[in-house]
Amino acid sequence: MLHPLTIDTALPPDTCHPEYDPTVAAVGLCPWCGAEHTLATGLARAECRSLMQELERNGRIDLAVTEEYADPRLSLDYLHGVARGQMFGVLVCRTQQGTYGTLRAFSAQYNRIWHVDGWVPPLLDIAAFDTVVAKDDPDINRMGREIRALDERIAACPSPAPGEDGPAAALQEERARLTETRRLRSRQSMHDIHALYRVRNFKGDSASLFDIFPAGRGIPTGTGDCCAPKLLQYAALHHLTPLGLAEFYWGRESRSGARRHGQFYPSCQEKCYPILGHMLCGMPHP
Ligand SMILES: [Zn+2]
Ligand SMILES: [Zn+2]
């Protein structure tokens, strides 16, 4: 899982390296000690640039296999289509033996695939996630289709005479009832998915998303799926010391225009600020 460094390996990639960048790449508010914990960029941007070149050269993310075994779903074309781009990240690490290397992550799933060789796994149990999705998604999708069918029937109704409810009123009522049922079912499903995440820190403590997010505050969709938490989780579980982190966007510009191809971004505020506080707590000093 640990990839060899691509930068000049004559010098260790730690704080003593002349090109070590102290800019904060990841920051979180710790739910336990109330402090803000941070992780610097270090030499991770240089390692990201090597990864970008490798991606461009291969045109796919399954870099661990030769061309003949390449999975077409893992082609980079996916990032330039309707799905648009996504985030990638690199964590430079030191092993307990004093050697160095990098971990790589893509955010969330890549084209509905959680696990790709050479990339760190997600924070949840993939089989348990599949079970929740298989249980809930068919019903949620069916209700979505029924709502759309009702919309068509409502649109086709003749406009009522003045003072009359019209035949659409009953359909409107049915639609409202169905929409509410679907909303509650989706919320329950999301709750069951959030319950699958186990977030580990460098003190060896595991927390759930419900422990980390203040009671009563909703947990944003996709929390725990960004590159920073995936990379830190793997490092914490495998006793690797993080020395630097960088995350970049790759692919078609995000709809809002907030993310652009090849640009670096610090850890996000909405999802990662709470979770990284827990994850970075007790991290050994680089
Ligand atoms: Zn994030
Ligand atoms: Zn702390």
Task: Describe the fold and architecture.
It is a single chain. This protein is α+β, with helices and mostly antiparallel strands. It folds into two domains: 21-124 and 197-280, no CATH class; 129-193. Helix content is 34%, strand content 16%. The chain has six helices and seven strands; from the N terminus they run ββαββααββααβα. It has helices at residues 44-58, 126-156, 168-194, 209-212, 227-237, 272-280; strands at 21-29, 36-42, 86-94, 100-106, 199-200, 206-207, 241-250. It has a three-stranded antiparallel sheet, sandwiched between helices. Strand 1 and strand 2 (36-42) form a beta hairpin. Helix 2 runs antiparallel to helix 3 and helix 5 packs parallel to helix 6 (272-280). The chain is elongated and about 85 Å long. It starts with 20 loop residues before the first strand and ends in a 6-residue tail after the last helix. The mean pLDDT is 92. One zinc ion (ZN) is lined by residues 226, 267-268, 271-272.
